[in-house]
Amino acid sequence: MTAAAIPYTPPLKEIRFVLDHLAGMAEVAALPGFEDASPDMVDSILGEAAKIAENILAPLNRIGDVQGANLGADGIARTAEGWGPAWQALVEGGWNGLPFDPTRGGMGLPNLLNTAVQEMWHSANMAFALCPMLTQGAVNAVQLYGSDALKDIYLPKMISGEWTGTMNITEPQAGSDLAATRSRAVPNGDHYLVGGQKIFITYGDHDLTENIVHLVLARLPDAPPGVKGISLFVVPKFLVNPDGSLGARNQVKCVSLEHKLGIHGSPTAVLSFGDEGGATGFLVGEPNRGLEYMFTMMNHARLNVAMQGLSIAERAYQQALAYARDRVQGKPLGWTEGQSKGIVNHPDVRRLLMGMKARIEAMRGILYTAAAAVDVAHHHADEAARGRAALLVDLLTPIAKGWCTETGQQLASDGVQVHGGMGFIEETGAAQHLRDARITTIYEGTTAIQANDLINRKILRDGGATANGLLDEIAALGGELSGHADEALRVTGAELVAAVHEAKQAVAWVLATAKQDPRLPAAASVTLLELMGVVAGGWQLARAAKVAVERLAEGDGDTAFLSAKPLTARFYATHVLPKAAALRATVVNGSASVMALSEEQLFGAA
Amino acid sequence: MKVLVPVKRVVDYNVKVRVKADGSGVETANVKMSMNPFDEIAVEEAVRLKEAGTATEIVVVSVGPTQAQETLRTALAMGADRAILVQTDVTTEPLAVAKVLKALVEKEAPGLVILGKQAIDDDCNQTGQMLAALLGWGQGTFASKVVAADGKVAVTREIDGGLETVELKLPAVVTADLRLNEPRYASLPNIMKAKKKPLETVTPDALGVDVTPRLKTLKVTEPAKRQAGIKVPDVATLVDKLKSEARVI
Amino acid sequence: MPILILADHDNATLKPATAHAVSAAAKLGSDIHLLVAGRNAAPVAEQAAKLAGVAKVLLADDAAYEHALAEPVAALLVSIASGYSHVLAAATSVGKNVLPRVAALLDVAMISDITAVVSADTFERPIYAGNAIATVQSSDPVKVVTVRTTAFEAAAAANSAPVESVAAVADPALSSFVSAELSKSERPELTAARIVISGGRGMQSGDNFHLLEVIADKLGAAVGASRAAVDAGFVPNDYQVGQTGKIVAPELYVAVGISGAIQHLAGMKDSKVIVAINKDEEAPIFQVADYGLVADLFKALPELQQAV
């Protein structure tokens, strides 16, 4: 083949295994409304999505990195070569509508299936895949909270992808602290006049579609201060006439595009609203509830960004693996005739690759499990089942976002390390993944914001009930496996039990300490999040290993694939799970030392 | 005009096949399978003929195991109207497939049969020519352009050293080469619709065709590994080696 | 029983591929008859008669055979096949087009693209794009076989076999020739070429690439370059072979003055035969080369041009 781009092969077999055996695709397909998601249909959809990822999106990844997005003299952001036709392919294929309401042009398929498709697209080209991801988030917000009139005008074209969507949250003075939001919206007949400046707006302007639908947080004139006075507005780039055709250009101006460390292909815009009196905007839902609505989108987006951690790690892993097989440097220790001489047989290179493989499988297990729980939480006939699933989603969201993005970044770095000096050379392509991965721990809430959410809303609020409930479930699985005949399962089970024990101590410490001094758990929060992530990853690998061993015992002939599962779990159990003890020690013993130096000491040492 | 498009389920283009240790063949268990890429091109061409109003109905056929239904569904998602699976677990040879197809052609009476020039598993490049022979039809093999009109089809063929255009009386058999077109990606709505399109299953027996292989595969082996490289002392030796040993010039 | 080979030609010249098919047939150990079906193709028959090992040339001269259309040529072959144990052709676009039709008309299986003759009924042929080699045996009364030309040497021109005319048979008149567009001797595209010759920084200038071009034209090869040569401005960007350039896998790749950075190797390592010419004995390119020549390229290239 002539493609110069670094190839990406969607890991369909791994995806299918996790869908079927960890996330419960069959149970999800049995939910009301998901009858179309039969196993053969899932195969067909994943197969075609994989082709698009591999053949259309992946070859554009490097082009996007090199050319970037550029603001033209006409004030329109231009995407890289080939990106327009690629977007068109997604629109023509109906891919944007996969999880949405069939009455508005969607396909009505499960979020779980959408998650698998998004994984491949993010692996293929993360900077590109942000556009469908944000558009889907915007569709969710309008669908859930918009008036029928807004839905009728905007949803069909957003679902088809003819128009894209954005999230306008951040302002120069309002980053993680949205109480500082200043953008204004003044009532003006049937609409509002919106004014203000928004920054870091992903796909805030571009040339992929004829219109862009901005979802903008702004304050009404009489709004109370703080986060309880923020409303959500739809502000289209072009106004829409009653017949659906495009009207006048709205007062939304792309002032500049940011120059970034990574995701160069994704235009990150500074948008100025209402420079000449006010951009026409339409209120979404009720006044002053914008942040609540935005959080619905945000939680969706957080799981998607968590997915980016997995996706970029998978891409980096595939590249590192290919390089390690081809690159020959010296004779590997203990090399025998017939073995490849590639550096893949050097023990430390293998350690890096196994670390990548095991963590990638752990992340996929967590994310697909959470995605299935989202479906159950929305579609299960039984209210109690919906409630249980929602609690699991709420708990897993910050853990997934925090741990998977931090891990994704680490693995992208490990991918560079496997390449040695060549990894530091841009031409090799490994460095791009590391640069692209770097944003994931920052946007949609930094790791610290996730950790804060985990401690305050997910642990302290219910006295640790949900977290301990999950940990007990994991411990039970560990206990079961620690008595298994299979040695790898035994080791995995025992290490899992030990790690859960550490996590429970850390959770207990948080519950006890929060009352004394809220700064102590805050200082420990990211470490606690990592601890929970490490345990959750072990949980998923243990589940996978158990299923694989059972299937082998039942005579499933795919021995090479299945027998790798317990061995991968054991690697994780012996290389990653033991970190739980150290993390617990840091949580319990280390928090006080975080703030121990006075500010003067911190600055005055010189 | 009805168009018949035979498609084959093969080991995916990207899979690096492994020869079985016992030399009985290559490992196909738990390996990704796809539609033969040349057959995808054939399906695409038929769909384009239908879009252009030349073809009225596209019937896709596969001779193979139950799982070949997936391949047929893929073709239906691309735009074929209905499918026929000729179910057999025998590893069929081109002659047997051509005979099965002949029986179906007699039943379906298509005006044109388009198929891939070659399957990427056995690399035979025979079925289309054999089918044309058995039907007594003209053949336009290795097509890079197909224009059907007025009871005739003009086929531009990829031949050694360039292109050649021949005109065939319809009905005829055309085999697709790589440059004929670029197959489309099936859209999500069409993938879902494909499930509801008719798929009929028959057996070779019911068609009166014996698909027992004629050839005996004695063994399958790995190709010779690349010889360790050598240094040659001069240009004369190099050219001699390239001519007599490597036989590449 | 003798063996029948269908000759590939353009009515004026016998294609070299046929000589390779003759030496494959020679391994079967029977008399070889070569069928020349064409129009005004007597010169081809004369050339065919010179091929070593050919016992007899059959010339079917008729307008129906002028363009080697599959339908009339297959009909002709079938009419005479019963006297033969094997019907062979080189696996050219003509052989691949005609022989399966012949096999089906004879109701026999066909064996495509053989790379070795094990015995009169057993052959080796590549499957899965050459990633496996199958040994197949035929029990059919007539073996219909195409021959991969690169696997067999060309039979020498050292013979003078008799030429006999054979009568044309009725043309099924299913197809007609419209036109042909044969490519000029312009160099093939990099990714499609059977042979690629690439130059690196060692070429020292863009002008020096003509040393490669003259050889490429003699061999029908494409010309490529390493990134170093492109970066140095010797040749345009679309010459670049490598991870960020074109990925090629020709039958023969000749790397001249290329050190063999891993980025370059990624673009050509799947080539069947790799030749490296470099004056630096330690250049990494030699690690992947089947044939390495440590030499000054400015001396070696003119010699190579003479020798090929």
TrEMBL record, chain A:
Domain Acyl-CoA dehydrogenase/oxidase C-terminal: 288-456
An annotated Gene Ontology molecular function: flavin adenine dinucleotide binding
Cofactor: FAD
Record domain Acyl-CoA dehydrogenase/oxidase N-terminal: where: 86-162
Catalytic activity annotation: 3-(methylsulfanyl)propanoyl-CoA + oxidized [electron-transfer flavoprotein] + H(+) = 3-(methylsulfanyl)acryloyl-CoA + reduced [electron-transfer flavoprotein]
Acyl-CoA oxidase/dehydrogenase middle domain: residues covered: 167-274
Broadest EC class assigned to this enzyme: oxidoreductase
Keywords: FAD, Flavoprotein, Oxidoreductase
Positions of the Acetyl-CoA dehydrogenase-like C-terminal domain: 486-597
PANTHER family listed in its UniProt record: ACYL-COA DEHYDROGENASE (PTHR42803), BROAD-SPECIFICITY LINEAR ACYL-COA DEHYDROGENASE FADE5 (PTHR42803:SF1)
Similarity comment: family membership: Belongs to the acyl-CoA dehydrogenase family.
Function: Involved in the assimilation of dimethylsulphoniopropionate (DMSP), an important compound in the fixation of carbon in marine phytoplankton, by mediating the conversion of 3-(methylthio)propanoyl-CoA (MMPA-CoA) to 3-(methylthio)acryloyl-CoA (MTA-CoA).
Name of the molecule in the record: 3-methylmercaptopropionyl-CoA dehydrogenase
TrEMBL record, chain C:
Organism for this UniProt entry: Azospirillum oryzae
Record-level GO BP terms: fatty acid beta-oxidation using acyl-CoA dehydrogenase
Family (UniProt): Belongs to the ETF alpha-subunit/FixB family.
Subunit structure: Heterodimer of an alpha and a beta subunit.
Record InterPro entries: DHS-like_NAD/FAD-binding_dom, ETF_a/b_N, ETF_a/FixB, ETF_alpha_N, ETF_asu_C, ETF_asu_C_CS, Rossmann-like_a/b/a_fold
Record-linked Gene3D superfamilies: HUPs, TPP-binding domain
CDD domains associated with the record: ETF_alpha (cd01715)
PROSITE patterns assigned: ETF_ALPHA
MF terms in GO: electron transfer activity; flavin adenine dinucleotide binding
Pfam family, one: ETF_alpha
Domain of life, per lineage: Bacteria
Function description: The electron transfer flavoprotein serves as a specific electron acceptor for other dehydrogenases. It transfers the electrons to the main respiratory chain via ETF-ubiquinone oxidoreductase (ETF dehydrogenase).
List of residues binding FAD: 201, 226-227, 240-244, 257-264, 278
Keywords carried by this UniProt record: Electron transport, FAD, Flavoprotein, Transport
The name this protein goes by in its record: Electron transfer flavoprotein subunit alpha
Boundaries of every Electron transfer flavoprotein alpha/beta-subunit N-terminal domain copy: 3-181
Cofactor: FAD
Note on how the cofactor is bound: Binds 1 FAD per dimer.
